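yo, [Ribosomal protein bS18]-alanine N-acetyltransferase is done. seq:
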Amino acid sequence: MKTKHTPIPGPEAVIADCFGLYIVLSALSSRVQLLGFAIVQQIIDEATLLDICVAPAYQGLGFGLLLIRHLLSEAKQAQAVVMMLEVRESNTSAKGLYEKVGFSESGRRKNYYQTNNGNEDAILMDKPL
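structure:
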C-alpha cells in the first residue's frame, strides 16, 4: 500500500536551515542522485527523528531500513539513550518500518494532523538505545 505524503509546509529556507542545525544523513547513488535522507535532532541523551524520506522510485528496496539502522547506531555512539519520533496513524508502511527496528507506540496526539476528511492522530513511538 502506497501512502500519499503532503508537501513540507513552509519555505524551503526553513528546511535548508535544518541542514546546519541537525544531524543529516543522506544516501546517494553512484550517479550522485539523492535516494533518501533523514534528519535527527539530539538534545542531551534524547534523539528525535524529525524526518526520513526515500525517493519514490527507491521505496520498498530497503533504503529506509538502512537509513534508520544507521541513525540508531549513530545516536547510540553519540550517547543517546532513546530515539523518539511521531508518525501519522495512516502511514502503515512507516509504522511497519519503525516496528521492524524495535520502536513501539508510547503515546498519541489526538487529531494532530489535518486531512481532507478531518483529522488523524499522530502516533508517538520510541526505542531505547
